[in-house]
Design a protein that fits this description.
Chain A: Its EC number is 6.3.5.-. The complex is a heterodimer. Chain A is mainly alpha-helical. Chain A contains 3 helices and 2 strands, in the order ααβαβ. Chain A has a domain of 39 residues: Orthogonal Bundle (Histone, subunit A), CATH 1.10.20. The C terminus of chain A is likely disordered. The chains are: A mainly alpha, B alpha+beta. The complex binds zinc ion. The site of zinc ion (ZN) has 8 residues of chain B, from loops.
């Protein structure tokens, strides 16, 4: 199953990657080969195998609802490319498409 | 149904009636009954409600969830999405989610898991939201709401599921600086939310309002959420479309999801607006659900209209996959039963019980119940200690609730605990202190960690020796059996004759106290 250029471009858009036409042509077959590798799994007979959600034999690692020390405002903003006294600053965001739960 | 709802329905029916050329108002209001009329319209509504769970800390880290802190002061490497930071589940959030699920009659599956919902937005620093895709913590359930068409009946609204997820941060558009930048505050990022998804079972905006009112009361009562829409701890999205009977044919209009509604009133208005708008669009274009996918519209509260939200073409592709950083959640049956046993009465049951038990009006019981189960516990303790339910109800609703609101404090942190207020009200009932002085004592206790006795002393209030008054009144009653007889046969005014005699024996005796003491002694016989 070959990946179309259109699909590569869509994936790039979703991942916020800017690809040149050359890169799109180069990446398509590479992704194909990864998918082919994973596809080998479909050769296995999984008829009587329950779906698994983790490879670990543990669950329920919970913590108590107790406040722990976090970062100060200045520490939190320390590595931000752009900031002011209180907040991170980013270029204006208008669209709401991604803000499913905003 | 609250008075607000009735008001809204009346107000909002007007534009529909004006459009009677398009939809006859009677057909709209009784869509299912009028089968003979052409173009019968049925409104189909499903609601998605996000409630913020009342935890101290976030869903996957120990940062505080308190509302109103200065920006970016309740953050850590986990909720900032810094490389290498790993999430750990908050056990209280899981407990509250299960409790909420049980309150709305949901199945609690033995296992649920976490998934990553991926999208890019500056207030989502990881680039994905941890949510639950195919195995939510709460399965199918239902909520019975009052039927607005048949008094006393209920309508069952199905619950599809309820799942846990983390909240995003807050984006603020900075107009002041002139740069047009957006400022990001990540304090809210990672706060636990429970998204409760209903079946499309509601048929009118009034039913949607009734569902929300019922759900909110339940969540507050069970201590699951504060449900403050203004603070964002309750958010509602509505899925709306119309089923239209055209002669023998049945069509459905495309589904619209309405967002950004900041009050129940807005939810109601937005639904009403969509009913008219979708009908008009259908008449114009003839487009049905088969020709157009679900779209998202925002609500403009000032213009009272919904508007098309700008959507990027890839918006629907969240590429969910199981979060490898988190383990599945397994909830044992015993745990479910243990949580079920903490549910106690439903708000409806409490509302029905209080008037009979404490002699208060149903309206007052409703106010107390709507303030949550902690307030109910507080009220009941005060009523029991003071022996006067009516007085307890009036003090709790006026003095306690007002002070809590003014000072923005919770009943659990209220400085005058139920034992102190019960003690104080008992003294009023006994005539040891009058009402206005008791208010002084109350206000003093709000600011000072003292006992009632200490407060009375601090304020220099001379307390009346009630045993002395009791003895005096008892002596007079023994000497005047006729007065006792008169009072017992219903003539309470007869005690007036005692006051003059009491004054002769003790010139400082308070007439009101004499009257009350005499009645109390006679009636306790
Ligand atoms: Zn944190």
């Amino acid at each position: 199953m070959a990946l179309s250029e259109l699909e590569v471009r869509k994936l790039a858009l979703l991942a916020r990657l800017e690809l040149s036409d050359d890169e799109v042509r180069k990446l398509g077959p590479q992704i194909d080969s990864i998918l082919g590798f994973v596809n080998q799994l479909s050769e296995l007979d999984t008829e009587d195998v329950q779906p698994m959600t983790t490879a670990l034999d543990v669950d329920n690692r919970w913590r108590a609802d107790v406040v722990t020390a976090g970062l100060s405002n200045d520490q939190a903003l320390h590595n931000a490319p752009s900031r002011d006294d209180e907040c991170f600053r980013v270029p204006a965001v208008l669209g709401t498409a991604a803000a499913k739960n905003a | 149904m609250s008075s607000l709802a009735e008001h809204s329905v009346v107000g909002l029916c007007i534009p529909i009636a004006e459009r009677s050329a398009t939809i006859h108002s009677d057909q709209y209001r009784l869509p299912i009954m009028t089968v003979t009329a052409p173009n019968t319209v049925t409104t189909i509504i499903g609601l998605e409600v996000h409630v913020q769970l009342k935890t101290e800390t976030k869903l996957f880290c120990g940062c505080k969830t308190q509302f109103g802190a200065p920006p970016n002061t309740q953050v850590c490497p986990v909720c900032l999405g810094l490389p290498g930071a790993l999430p750990v589940m908050n056990d209280r959030a899981i407990e509250l989610a299960v409790k909420a699920g049980l309150a709305i009659n949901c199945d609690i599956p033995p296992m649920s898991k976490w998934d990553r919902k991926q999208y890019f937005y500056p207030d989502l620093p990881k680039g994905y939201q941890i949510s639950q895709f195919d195995l939510p913590i709460c399965g199918e359930g239902y909520l019975d709401i009052p039927d607005d068409e048949n008094d006393g009946d209920t309508v069952r609204i199905g619950i599809t599921r309820a799942h846990l997820e983390e909240d995003a941060g807050k984006s603020m558009h900075d107009e002041a600086s002139g740069t047009g930048d957006t400022r990001i505050d990540l304090n809210r990022c990672g706060t636990p939310l429970l998204e409760i998804v209903s079946e499309p079972d509601m048929r009118s905006s009034a039913q949607a309002q009734a569902y929300l009112t019922q759900l909110k009361a339940l969540m507050i009562h069970m201590g699951i959420s504060d449900c403050e829409m203004q603070e964002g701890s309750l958010r509602v999205d509505a899925n709306v479309n119309l089923h239209i009977n055209v002669g023998e044919k049945k069509i459905a209009t495309p589904i619209v999801e309405v967002k950004n509604m900041n009050s129940f009133r807005a939810v109601e208005a937005a639904i009403e607006h969509e009913v008219v708008r979708q009908y008009d669009v259908w008449q114009e274009t003839g487009k049905t659900i088969k020709e157009e996918p679900k779209t998202t519209r925002g609500w403009d509260d000032t213009k009272e209209i919904t508007f098309q939200q700008r959507e990027k073409e890839e918006s629907a592709d969240y590429r969910y996959f199981p979060d490898p950083d988190l383990l599945p959640v397994r909830i044992l049956r015993e745990q479910v039963e243990a949580i079920r046993s903490t549910l106690g009465e439903t708000p409806d049951q409490t509302r029905d019980r209080l008037p009979g038990q404490y002699g208060i009006k149903p309206y007052d019981a409703d106010v107390i119940v709507k303030s949550g189960s902690q307030m109910v516990v507080y009220f009941e303790r005060v009523a029991e200690l003071s022996g006067d339910g009516k007085r307890a109800s009036s003090w709790v609703q006026q003095d306690v609730m007002r002070t809590m609101k003014d000072r923005q404090i919770d009943v659990s942190d209220f400085p005058v605990d139920a034992d102190k207020l019960g003690d104080l009200l008992k003294r009023i009932a006994a005539g040891d202190i009058d009402n206005s002085r008791a208010k002084d004592v109350f206000n003093h206790l709000v600011d000072n960690d003292q006992s009632v006795d200490e407060a009375i002393q601090s304020l220099g209030i001379e307390s009346v020796d009630s045993s002395e008054i009791d003895a005096l009144v008892q002596e007079l009653l023994d000497a005047n059996p006729k007065i006792v007889e008169d009072v017992l046969s219903g003539n309470e005014k007869a005690v007036g004759a005692l006051i003059g005699q009491a004054k002769k024996k003790n010139p400082n005796a308070n007439p009101q106290v004499i009257r009350e003491t005499a009645l109390r002694i006679i009636k306790s016989k």
